[in-house]
C-alpha cells in the first residue's frame, strides 16, 4: 500500500459524532467512501439523520444497510473495500469483534482502525467506570493483533469541539461560569475533530503506520483548563466565575448510579486530575502524528475558539451515539 494512494474506505458509525467528520474527510481526500449503517427506516430515524444520509449520497458515499449480526451481508460489504475505520460509540465497542470475524473471512482488508481515538488505553489506570470502557477497547485491540489483519491504534486524546463545549459552554452567551476539574493546571491535548478525522485518513493509508500506535499530541493543542478559560475570556471580553471540583468530588461523582454520568466523571479524572494524556513518554515504536505529517496545517486551540466565536453551537454536543 503506497502512502497517499486512493483506497476504498468503509466507515462504521458514519452517522455518529466522529463518524460524520471521518466520512467527509475521506471524501475530501478523494477516497471512494462507503458507510455501513443500520437499516434505514424513515419513521424511526431523526430528521437530522435522514438529512445526513441524503448528504452522504450527494457526496458520492456508497451506503450499505445492515446489522452487524448479519454476518454474510457484512462479509459481502467488506469484500468491496480495502480499509475499515470504526467510530462506534461507547455502548457498542465490543460489536467490533463481529467486524473482525467478518474481515478475516473476507480476507482482503489492508488496514483496520478500531474505534478508539481517546486516551492511550494500554497506559492508563482509570477509575472503574472508565476502566470498563478501556477494558473493552483493549479486548478489541488484542483481537485485532491476533487476527493477522494489519491494524493501527489511534490515541487522539481529547476532542476539541466537544471539550470546549463542556468546559466553556459557548452555546449559552448569558452564562459567565466555568467548571474546572481539579486545579485546572494539568496539561491535556485538545484536538479539533476535523483534524482528528483528516489525520486518521492519512494514517490509514500510510505503510509506516501498519501495526503501530499513533499518538496525536499536536504542540499547539497542549493546554490546561485555566489557559483555555483565560483565552476565552480575552476573546469574549467576559470574565468567568470559576467553580472548582476537587479530586475527592470527582471520585464521588464517578460512583453515580447513572453510567453515563459516572463515565464522564471518571474520564475527567483521568484527563484533568491524573494527566494521563501527557504523563508518559512516547516509546521508540510509537508514532507522533505531527512528526509523521509535518506539513499538515491543523487547527490550533486558539483557532478553534475563533471558530466558536464566529459560529457558536446552538446547544451542547454529545458523543455518546
- Cα-based radius of gyration, to the nearest Å: 20 Å
Order of helices and strands, N to C?
A: EHEHEHEHEHEEHEEHEEHEHHEHH
For the termini, the CA-CA separation is 32 Å
> Kindly state the mean pLDDT as a whole number?
93
Give me the number of helical elements. Answer: 12
Keywords: NADP, Oxidoreductase
Organism: Heracleum sosnowskyi
GO molecular function: oxidoreductase activity
InterPro entries: NAD(P)-bd_dom_sf, NmrA-like, NmrA-type/Isoflavone_red_sf, PCBER-like
Short description:
This protein has 321 residues and is of the alpha/beta class. It contains twelve helices and 13 strands.
How would you describe the overall organization of this protein?
The protein is of the alpha/beta class and 321 residues long. 41% of the residues lie in helices and 15% in strands. It contains twelve helices and 13 strands. It has a five-stranded parallel β-sheet, with helices on both faces. A three-stranded parallel β-sheet has the order 6-10-13. The model has no long low-confidence stretch (mean pLDDT 93). One of its GO terms (molecular function) is oxidoreductase activity. Pfam families: NmrA. Residues 6-304 form the NmrA-like domain.
Layout: helices, strands, pairs:
Blueprint: E1 9-12, H1 17-28, E2 33-37, H2 47-58, E3 62-65, H3 71-78, E4 83-86, H4 96-106, E5 111-113, H5 128-147, E6 152-155, E7 158-159, H6 160-168, E8 177-181, E9 188-191, H7 193-204, E10 212-215, E11 222-223, H8 225-236, E12 241-245, H9 247-253, H10 259-273, E13 287-288, H11 289-292, H12 301-310
Parallel strand pairs: 1-2, 1-4, 2-3, 4-5, 6-10, 7-9, 8-12, 10-13
Antiparallel strand pairs: 9-11
Keywords: NADP, Oxidoreductase
InterPro entries: NAD(P)-bd_dom_sf (IPR036291), NmrA-like (IPR008030), NmrA-type/Isoflavone_red_sf (IPR050608), PCBER-like (IPR045312)
Pfam family, one: NmrA
